[in-house]
Each structure stands twice: as structure tokens, then as C-alpha cells.
From TrEMBL:
Subcellular location: Cell inner membrane; Cell membrane
Keywords: Cell inner membrane, Cell membrane, Membrane, Phosphate transport, Transmembrane, Transmembrane helix, Transport
Superkingdom assignment: Bacteria
Family: Belongs to the binding-protein-dependent transport system permease family. CysTW subfamily.
Coiled coil, from the record: none
Topology in the lipid bilayer: Multi-pass membrane protein
Protein's name in the database: Phosphate transport system permease protein
InterPro entries assigned: MetI-like (IPR000515), MetI-like_sf (IPR035906), Phosphate_PstC (IPR011864), Phosphate_Transport_Permease (IPR051124)
Origin species: Acetobacter farinalis
Major subcellular location class: membrane
Record domain ABC transmembrane type-1: where: 82-312
Any one Pfam family match given in the protein's UniProt record, by short name: BPD_transp_1
Transmembrane segments: 29-56, 132-151, 163-189, 294-316
Length: 327
């Protein structure tokens, strides 16, 4: 008996060794994968900062507060494209978030299962449409509508109101911040809707059934049960949509007007960081101050994305703390 036990132990030893070798190899690969993400991110940040250092050192702090972009005089500032990026992204999210929430709520709580599955798949397919298609749609369909109908009507109705008159002023070209915001809103609605729908569906059914059993309506269940439970997923979907809106290039380039000026009118032509880089990069010689300024704008866009992500994490953590205190 002792001899057979020893033989079994000797036979099992290579298998244990191979198993531990496989575990250690898998662990090493996973660790290298995680480190590679940080290395790639650090490399991108380093390239953007070093490439834009010439502009940072030449203009100093005035680069962040100047709205001039003049390649002839070699005077560049970041305020105008940063303003266009933030304004168009805000308008896009202002349009997209209510539509995405309403669509996700309808698909998960009101629509029949057969209809919900078909429309849910259509929403996911719409999220895969290339951005240049949205840009062409905006240029050939949305721009004429804005120029011939929306802006003249807005000027007729609000042109004499003291504050609102500034928001509807300008020539009716059809391109501008509001048009870019509409295109961005249509673009990011499918992405945010898909994330919200998946989060709402993944909620345990017993929580909804308990609320319905206590007499809650569908809206009360969504507001008091589903949203608090899925807060992180909802905010994550909104941040995902914001990231796509701020980094969008071709669709915005078609409809925003390509003007490096700050205008408070919703119909004023403007520029975003991404569209300005796409338009000016081919005409920027290597080592020039203009190219360095474009690289500096790329670094600023990354910084804005990081700040947005950090703010979302802070809001989530505060919401969790408040929820813990109420419980």
C-alpha cells in the first residue's frame, strides 16, 4: 500500500508542476497586459506634451487664455477650439441624455419583449455607423433645414428678447454650434442607450417586483429603485458618450463652420480641437510652431477628458456615501 501511494504521488508531481507553470504564465501575461495599458497611455501623454512644449514655452500662460489662431503672424491660442469643444459636447449631451434615457426606459419597462429585442438590436447597429455618415447627413439634410427654417424662425421669435437675442443672432448659414450639437447628439444616443439598457436589464428582477408589490408605479420604480441601483452604469454611459462627443472629428468638421472665434450665438460658426487638428495638421510643417500648437491642443483635449472622468468618479463616490447614510 505504501509503495502504491508513493508511485501515485510521483506520477501526480509532473501534473502539479505543469499546472503551476500554467498559472504563473497566465499571471505574467495578465500583469504585462495591465502594465502595457499604462505604458501606452504614458507614451501618448509624453508625445503630446513634448510635441506641444514649443508652443507652451513660446506663448506661456497666454496660450490658455488667447482666442487668436493666426498662422500668418504665428500667433496661436487654445481658447476658441476649447470653447467649441465644450459647447458642442454640452449641447450634444443635452440632447442625447434625455433621449437615451427615455429609449432605454421604454425598451426595458414598457415595450413588448419582441419589439424590445428588435429595436434594441437596431440601436446597437446604429452605434456602429461611421461618423462620416453622420457628418454627410448633417451637411446635406440638417444644415439646409437649420438655414432655411430653424434659425429664421428663432430670430423672428426671440430676436427682440434682451438675452435670447444674442443666442439666435448671426447669418443663417446653417452651420454652427447648434448644428454640431445636434449631430453629436444623434451620434452618441445609440451608445448611451445601449449602455443604459444593458444596465437596466442586468438589475435583479426581485427588486422591481418588490417595488411593484408595494404599489409603486413604473416611473417610481425607475426613479427610486432602478436608477440608484444602476447609477454607476448610467454615469459610465454618459461619460462614454461625452468622450465620443469631445473627440469626434469628421462629423463635426462637416457642420460646425470652421471658424476660430468665440461666439455666444447658438448658430455661430466655430471649431473644436479635433476638427481644427484634422483641418490644420496636413498644412503644418514638421518642427513648426503651428504643429507644436496642434500637439498642445491634443494634450489639452486629453486633460479635459481626464478631468471629466475624475469629476464623474467624484460624483459617483458622493452618491454612494449619501446612499449609505440614508440606509
Amino acid at each position: 500500500m505504501d509503495g502504491s501511494a508513493e508511485q501515485s504521488a510521483v506520477a501526480a508531481a509532473p501534473q502539479i508542476t505543469r499546472r503551476w507553470d500554467g498559472d504563473s504564465l497566465f499571471r505574467t501575461l495578465v500583469v504585462l497586459t495591465g502594465i502595457s495599458v499604462l505604458v501606452v497611455l504614458g507614451a501618448i501623454i509624453t508625445i503630446m506634451v513634448t510635441g506641444g512644449w514649443k508652443a507652451f514655452s513660446t506663448f506661456g500662460p497666454s496660450f490658455f487664455v488667447t482666442a487668436v489662431w493666426n498662422p500668418v503672424t504665428q500667433h496661436f491660442g487654445a481658447v476658441a477650439p476649447v470653447f467649441g469643444t465644450l459647447a458642442s459636447s454640452f449641447l450634444g449631451l443635452l440632447i442625447a441624455v434625455p433621449l437615451a434615457f427615455g429609449t432605454a426606459f421604454w425598451l426595458t419597462a414598457l415595450a413588448p419583449p419582441a419589439v424590445s429585442s428588435v429595436i434594441g438590436m437596431a440601436v446597437q447597429l446604429l452605434a456602429a455607423v461611421p461618423s462620416i455618415i453622420f457628418g454627410m447627413w448633417g451637411f446635406f439634410v440638417l444644415v439646409p433645414v437649420m438655414a432655411h427654417y430653424v434659425q429664421p424662425t428663432a430670430r423672428h421669435m426671440f430676436g427682440h428678447v434682451p438675452v435670447l437675442s444674442a443666442l439666435v443672432s448671426g447669418a443663417p448659414f446653417g452651420t454652427g454650434l447648434l448644428t454640431a450639437g445636434l449631430v453629436l447628439g444623434v451620434m452618441v444616443v445609440p451608445s448611451i442607450t445601449a449602455v443604459m439598457r444593458d444596465v437596466f436589464v442586468s438589475m435583479p428582477a426581485v427588486l422591481r417586483e418588490s417595488a411593484y408589490g408595494l404599489g409603486a408605479t413604473r416611473w417610481e420604480v425607475m426613479r427610486r429603485v432602478v436608477l440608484p441601483w444602476s447609477r454607476q452604469g448610467v454615469v459610465g454611459g454618459i461619460v462614454l458618450g461625452m468622450g465620443r462627443a469631445m473627440g469626434e472629428t469628421m462629423a463635426v468638421t462637416f457642420v460646425i463652420g470652421d471658424s476660430n472665434h468665440i461666439g455666444w450665438s447658438l448658430f455661430a460658426p466655430a471649431n473644436t480641437i479635433a476638427s481644427l487638428i484634422a483641418l490644420e495638421f496636413p498644412e503644418s510643417p514638421a518642427g513648426s510652431l503651428k504643429l507644436s500648437s496642434l500637439m498642445a491642443l491634443g494634450a489639452i483635449l486629453m486633460a479635459i477628458s481626464f478631468v471629466t472622468l475624475w469629476c464623474s468618479r467624484v460624483l459617483l463616490s458622493r452618491g454612494e456615501v449619501k446612499a449609505g447614510k440614508r440606509s
